[in-house]
Design a protein that fits this description.
This protein has 471 residues and is mainly α. The chain contains 20 helices and no strands. The longest helix has 31 residues. The radius of gyration is 33 Å and the shape is globular.
Length: 471
């Protein structure tokens, strides 16, 4: 805005001008003729603008645009994945122990299910007890939306440390719980949240270090869940008999703490931080392949984990003694180790659905052993292929953590949350005080896994057609 010299108190420039020309008397209006000024700044009414002496500047809108352009820096290209080397395989080792303590804990829940159903701590139906494990699994996968974004932004170690502390605290609280609602909070909510923050790095980090061997590396890392599903049930069952439930769970928590600290010490992000962007990448839903695959994960996971919750009680129901029935879950987890290493060969098959439907006719010890081993092998391959498929469907690996978190949260999380309790409700409705009927539970699980396999076949067809080439 132009400043006039007609009236008002003289400024410093005017006083200096007046002192220099002392023979001139100050007028009553304090109007002093300005010193040499550019013509464009002098108007017809003798006004003067100091803006003529200022360096030209940008408008506030232009300045904010410049600031935004400075902040919107492009993510530097990290180059191709090393696809091997000491650092890359250390990530696989760290991810192995993350899966050992997250999915391994979920795969162990069949032991908790059978122990809680005995009524030594609280009384509840099979469906109500299943909610404890399903809430834990749901939060483990759903928290991936936030944690996947945090890892993309460069907070891998903070995310891991927070998850480890939360999960160990939750398991310690489980050891002193006595009522059902206490187990819901400690084992379902707190341990589930910690598991989610701890699990997501096991797949988001490993996937960025490998290209040609990505499926193999992720498969090896995910075998940790099977190994955890073998070791933890044995530890828990034997220690409950020797030192009681409380101390058995505490020993589990100390084993978890030791192995998780090893993961924290070796895992590193390879991709540079991506500081901007939404928590949920809505642009991913414009890709039909990604959207259909997300739906297939939801349907598959709703039925996939039902046998892990109920195989022990099923074996007991057909007359197998408790000690042998306990090892059905161990066999299932052991068989899934090989299935996780070889996902490209079997993940697109419908074998898991056929096994579940065939399970209805199993009524002998030999039959339940065979069916547990076969189902463990096939289900392991299905679980291992999810991270590798998301990486295949993700054109920009800097968004891999976010998109994988979306698949695991929306698809896997809600599937795990609903599957076991719904199956338990079917079991409760078909059973009597003297006999339990499992055929409805198995049909429910088998049809869902079959439908998920059909959708996965559709995704493959959209991307590579009907050819038998490797996707």
């Amino acid at each position: 805005m132009a400043q006039t010299f007609k009236t008002g108190r003289p400024n410093l420039l005017q006083r200096k001008s007046h002192m220099k020309y002392g023979d001139e008397k100050e007028s009553t209006t304090f109007a002093f003729p300005p010193r040499t000024a550019p013509k464009p700044s002098i108007s017809s009414d003798r006004t003067f603008s100091f803006s003529s002496f200022r360096t030209p500047s940008f408008s506030p809108f232009q300045e904010s645009e410049i600031e935004l352009n400075k902040k919107a820096q492009t993510v530097p290209d990290p180059g191709p994945a090393p696809d091997g080397g000491l650092t890359a395989w250390l990530q696989v080792l760290g991810a192995f122990f993350l899966n050992f303590n997250t999915w391994g804990l979920v795969n162990t829940y069949g032991v908790f299910q059978s122990y809680y159903a005995g009524g030594s701590l609280f009384t509840a139906s099979q469906s109500a007890i299943a909610w404890l494990g399903s809430i834990q699994g749901f939060l483990m996968l759903t928290i991936g939306v936030l944690c996947g974004r945090a890892i993309d932004a460069g907070y891998l170690r903070i995310n891991l440390a927070a998850g480890i502390v939360t999960m160990i605290f939750g398991m310690m609280m489980v050891s002193i719980c006595h009522d059902y609602w206490q187990f819901v909070l400690a084992q379902g909510v707190v341990a589930g949240l910690g598991s989610g923050a701890t699990f997501i790095p096991s797949v988001t980090v490993v996937g960025t270090y490998f290209s040609a061997h990505r499926s193999l590396a992720i498969g090896i890392a995910t075998t940790g869940s099977s190994v955890g599903g073998i070791i933890y049930p044995i530890v828990l069952r034997r220690l409950i008999a020797e030192i009681g439930f409380g101390w058995a769970v505490r020993v589990m928590a100390f084993i978890m703490l030791t192995t998780l600290l090893l993961s924290l010490s070796v895992m590193r992000s390879r991709l540079p931080p991506r500081k901007s962007g939404p928590i949920v990448d809505f642009s991913a839903f414009r890709d039909p392949g990604y959207s259909i695959f997300l739906a297939s994960v939801f349907i598959t996971y709703t039925g996939l984990y039902v046998p892990f919750f109920y195989v022990e009680s099923y074996a007991t129901n057909i007359g197998i003694n408790e000690d042998m029935a306990f090892y059905m879950l161990i066999m299932m987890n052991a068989a899934s180790v090989l299935g996780r290493i070889l996902p490209p060969f079997v993940a697109d098959s419908f074998f898991s659905a056929l096994i579940l439907l065939s399970w209805i006719r199993v009524n002998s010890q030999e039959g339940i052993i065979a069916i547990s081993v076969m189902y463990g092998f096939i289900s392991g391959s299905i679980q291992a292929v999810v991270p590798a498929t998301v990486a295949f469907l993700c054109p920009d690996l800097s968004k891999y953590g976010t998109r994988l978190g979306m698949v695991l949260a929306i698809g896997g999380g809600f599937g795990v949350l609903l599957g076991a309790p719904l199956a338990g409700a079917i079991l409760d409705s078909q059973s009597s005080a003297d006999q339990q009927e499992y055929w409805g539970l198995l049909v429910f699980s088998g049809i869902l896994v079959f439908a998920g396999a059909v959708l996965q076949l559709v995704v493959r067809t959209l991307k590579v057609g009907w050819s038998l080439q490797k996707a």
